Amino acid sequence: MLLLALALLVLVPATALASPAPSSGPGSVTEARVDVPGATLDTTLYLPATTPAPAVLVAHGFGGSKASVDDDARALADRGFVVLAWSARGFGASTGQIALNAPDAEVADASALLDRLAAMPEVVQDGPGDPRAGVTGASYGGALALLLAGYDPRVDAIAPVITWNDLGQALFPNAAAAGALPADTPARGAFAADGVFKRGWAGVFFSAGLGTGAPGEPGTDDATRPAVPAAPAPGASPTCGRFTPEVCAAYTDAATTGRLSPATAALLERSSPRTVTGRITAPTLLVQGEQDTLFGLDQADANAREIAANGTPVQVRWYAGGHDGAAPADDVRTAVGDWFDHHLLGTGDDPGTTFSYGVESGLRAGSSTATGRTVVAAGYPGLAGAGAVPTQDLALTGGARVVATPAGGSPAAITALPGLGGALGSLGGRISALTAALPGQSAQYASAALADPLLLTGAPRIDLTVSRVPGQPGPDEAILFVSASEVTPDGTRTLLGGAVAPVRVAVPADGSPVTVPVTLPGVVAPVEAGNRVVVTVGTTDQAYAGGTDPAAWSVDAGTVLTVPVVPGEAVTANTVPLGPAVGIGVVLGVALLAWGAAALLRRRGAAAVDPAPDAPPLEIRDLAKTYRGGFSAVRGVSFRVERGQVLGLLGPNGAGKTTVLRMLMGLIRPTAGTMTAFGEPVGPGAPVLARIGAFVEGPGFLPHLSGADNLRLYWAATGRPTAEAHLDEALEIAGLGASVQRRVGAYSQGMRQRLAIAQAMLGLPELLVLDEPTNGLDPPQIHAMREVLRRYAAGGRTVLVSSHLLAEVEQTCDHVVVMHHGQVVADGSVEDVIAGGGAATFAVDAPSRAADVLGALAGVHAVEVDGEQVHAELNGTPRASAVRALVTAGVDVASAGPRRRLEDAFLQLVGEDGPS
């Protein structure tokens, strides 16, 4: 029950497209009940500020309701679409029974909603009864988008997310192909018959539909409430909940027999987009998660192949999340909006048919934010014009081994939990210990230590040979589970993709061996040099209904593991500092890489923009960021950074400094305003980001490696050529000397900070952005850091530094921007800001006469003689005019400058009580 509850808690968040906070735009939001055959649907209509406009249907995930996609709907309405969201039959406040996206039920319901849009004057019409409309949704909603596009030709564009192609294969997978499979696409699955029941996920989904709440029950439309079963609908069977009798019978049969009966196969077939992909002509954006033991990359691969075969434009995006990981991030949400902008509104550049995938570093920021980069290829390999799939063979050793299926299939290995994937370590050592291959039940086949890093991109393959062990009892079929792991020299094992490939193989009774091609789960997995890839063949897995009869099998994974490797261009690398709770990371800085994106834009046919040669390194205009609930962290921020400047960004805690830097680095998106660097727009994937380097808040390195090795490892992870790193120059500027060859574990805090600066300087970016670089440093180290920044800016490069140390900013920077309550309250040279109140000090040869001269000037007051110095409040009178008056009166002026320190000016600007 604990595992089921954990899975239910993540079910709705993982299957909903999270979006930015609702906008308070001028459009209206209207709720209505719509009667369809067999149900009444609870709907919400979102109108944009301007109509008529194209429409988008937004479907929710299994266990959710229209409330689950409210933010998505509002975000699309803000883009200018008429948006219609609804609770599918059997969910939320909608009546009817859950039929698993049956053509005559949920799909027909969506067609009825298109009819409703066709009758609305607010919706652009392509013809009588034909609204211009797109469909998007995640998981259950994603399949609905595909099915509706196949059944209803009025659909003009779709963007299905983390969904299935063949529901029978998703719930009864068999990775053992009957013969050789084409290696045309990177994640093609075997999709063989007679699969192994995925009982863990199937049980979660069935439980989520047992009682989704009676219509109108309080709280069932609360998007923040997990999809934990409530009371069944009135009159429903306690064992079937709100499912149709056919779905209930199919689940009962599968759960009790562990096999796919013809009746269940037919029911799942009717709910499979594969039945209609051959007639989908609506441009399709397919988004699939790389951390998904429910609907793997093979499902999106099949959808891509089948839809593209019609000549339909297809773009494929794999992201580092899924049902077992994070919801789509901002870049995915933006891609969905851009897709509809172009294909429905007719605005924006053509998104094209590129293929992108996320590469996680394995490190996390804080406790939840994954770090990594995005890689973009010209197209999805195997589709029209995209070329074949490059592969690499890894030699395996191991030979034939004997593995046993225990009686009852227990104990069973635990490799994944529904909704949690392979992330079991946090649940405690007793569970974590079972994630490894169990003794006697598994065989290992290892590659040699890799000489170079390897980026697996798709589904690895082996040839598996299975035979009965002579003299040992057993059934006429073997059920096995094949997986691949990365193993470090110290034995640490990481299950790639957090998933296994189930195999059901008929084995002759005479002991003859059977060899079958096996396709492992599709993954995106960077494997470090020096580590090994280990293939495991096991006999049990808790997530599946495996064999229960005691048996012994001879297995051999062969001598070669073939892995797909899809090259591309690293267009973003988002990295932030890491806390000690998740280990010390290699990534401290942000090397925002987009040097190849210009070529990508050319391939898309985008017009090149030639920025002015004298454009400043950074210009921010009217920048704003408003978070959920209406909190404005940044409001109307504008400033400009010139070449060769060291600019200090100042402000008390909560002033909005870090928010501005995070927007600049593409980590969060602004609500309004523009940012340009060197005359080019700044945003995730922008080519100009290759000219910017940064680090945020605090260092994190692998302690057992030297400083130089940490930097080399970081640069290798970016995917850029080694020659572009300029490692020696960065180290020279940082001034670490011979200590760069020492283990980082022996570094002082100051040395770590300087190494962090060196990492941010890799590639010698023209604009360096640093957030609190002197945190934790002692005075000599702060002095050294000051010299580092000055040396870096020498020669025309530019530094933007956020800091609380006002004395250091005064000595290091030549320009400052002061923020308070999210706004800029001062912007100018350090000298001008210090002198902002007019207090000045003059060193003169005749102090008394100088006091008389200054006191006679219009507006000047509070003149004070202090030895050979005279202090005065100039009150707007230029200091140069005061000097001229003194010299004209025969007073020799040795020096003239502001009386205050930067700290004095700062406190006058923001007050001494800090942010409210």
TrEMBL record:
Coiled-coil regions listed: none
A GO MF label: ATP hydrolysis activity
Family as reported in the entry's similarity comment: Belongs to the ABC transporter superfamily.
Protein name: Alpha/beta fold hydrolase
Alphabetical keyword list: ATP-binding, Hydrolase, Nucleotide-binding, Signal, Transport
Region of interest (Disordered), ranges: 213-237
Organism superkingdom: Bacteria
InterPro entries: AAA+_ATPase, AB_hydrolase_fold, ABC_transporter-like_ATP-bd, ABC_transporter-like_CS, Galactose-bd-like_sf, P-loop_NTPase, Xaa-Pro-like_dom, Xaa-Pro_dipept_C
Source organism of this protein record: Pseudonocardia broussonetiae
Residues of the ABC transporter domain: 618-846
Biased composition (Low complexity): 226-237
Signal peptide bounds: 1-18
